Amino acid sequence: MSKWYDEAIFYHIYPLGLTGAPRCRQDEGEETVHRMRELDPWVDHMKDLGITAVYIGPLFESTTHGYDTKDYKKVDGRLGDNEDFRHFTEKCHENGIRVVVDGVFNHTGREFFAFQDLQKNRENSPYRYWYQDVNFGGNSPYNDGFWYRAWRNCYELANLNLENPEVRNYLLDVVRFWIEEFDIDGIRLDCADCLNFDFMKELRRATEEKKEDFWLMGEVIHGDYARWVKPDILHSVTNYELWKGLYSGHNDHNYFEIAHTIRRQFDANGGIYRGCRLYSFVDNHDVNRIVNTLNEKAFLRSVYTLLYTLPGIPSVYYGSEYGVEGKKEWGGDEHLRPALTLSELEANPPVPELMEILRTLAGVRSREKALTDGAYRELMLTNRQYAFGRILDGEAVVVAVNNDDREARFEIPCPVSGAVAEEIFTKKEIKIENGRIIWEMPAYGSAVFTVKQG
Questions:
Q1: DSSP character for 238?
Q2: Left if phi > 0, otherwise alpha if psi is -120 to 50, otherwise beta: which for 116?
Q3: Secondary structure (DSSP) of 187-231
Q4: List of domains in the chain
Q5: Max Cα separation, the chain?
Q6: Cβ distance 267 to 389 under 8 Å?
Q7: What is the pLDDT of residues 356-380, one digit of tens each?
Q8: 419 in Cβ contact with 453 (< 8 Å)
Q9: pLDDT (0 to 100) of residue 375
Q10: Which of 13, 342, 382, 394 has the most crowded CB, counting CB atoms within 10 A?
């Protein structure tokens, strides 16, 4: 039986950016500023967009970008307090939207109580084994008088020692706290490809004891995703392989790249991740916005059509549904995480037609079980045209995309017999001729056909 996350459409919010919080906690002192209340209209917006789950984070009290945790049981004061987050989760749940938060468990900031105690008491600190490879004969770039292992040599992020049972128990208690206090529905594990596998197994057991349908998704950039997506570890991981194919397959006019990725991952005959529900996206808080990644904005329709209809759990990054831009500059991420005002975007969207495209795609995804549970079958492929089916119980959804700057005639083998079809964007009924769906596709167009038994 499917769980909520198998059928979810996610919205991804980086709250410190969206609400315009200062980049450093000290920039406005230690006072609490209730910016999270500004997210109320965004909940209504998510519901209008057909969103069923939100991934929001980081949330824990921190000093700068949110991943340098200072207090695991407190909402960052730049966003508000714990009651503000409680209000947010309750409003989301009232609107049928599940809530997933960031779990930053690989490292802490230097202001975290255990690290502060280590600085003060050195060899006598009860937390000396909470961090990786602490060496009192060495020194750190901060001149602590001891060395420690840091995430990617960023010494403001001190790596926790997840082989230490005390550390694991502490973090499991943190997770129980967020479930008990706020009824969260899942956690996205930051740097899951750096985490201890035994810890993730313990986390899976602990969360399922608290909430049977609790979802664990890991940030994994490289590697064999099947190492993490297992019945006793995580439910899902980020599909960076597909992310790359979705933009470069369009920029290079090479649908073979996307089709090869999906065939390799999810084909019914030999796909290495078939049965896995990977987390799909076209942009996020760490990579350039999709509008800036694509050579032509006209590709947006096809890219999002594929995001919503290929195997996976689709996610939309806040503002990208309007075509908001953002590029890394000098290695910084601030332009990827802008402050946005919903009313201004609604009045003047950068890509006006995109919202309605995403609403339509969310609608067909919610109605057609084949798009979540159906087998994948490739039906047609050239460099510039691609069609596939998602097939379930004698019915199918057939998807076709065109990355050419000219119209193309599609003759797509229908994957079910004796069928009638309707195209969702035009609402046209399609006559199936000699077992084929015939469609004149506009330049840069996409089409989605719901195919039923005649």
A1: B
A2: alpha
A3: EEETTGGGS-HHHHHHHHHHHHHH-TT-EEEE---SS-GGGTBST
A4: 4-367 (3.20.20.80), 374-453 (2.60.40.1180)
A5: 80
A6: no
A7: 999 999 999 999 999 999 999 999 9
A8: yes
A9: 95
A10: 13
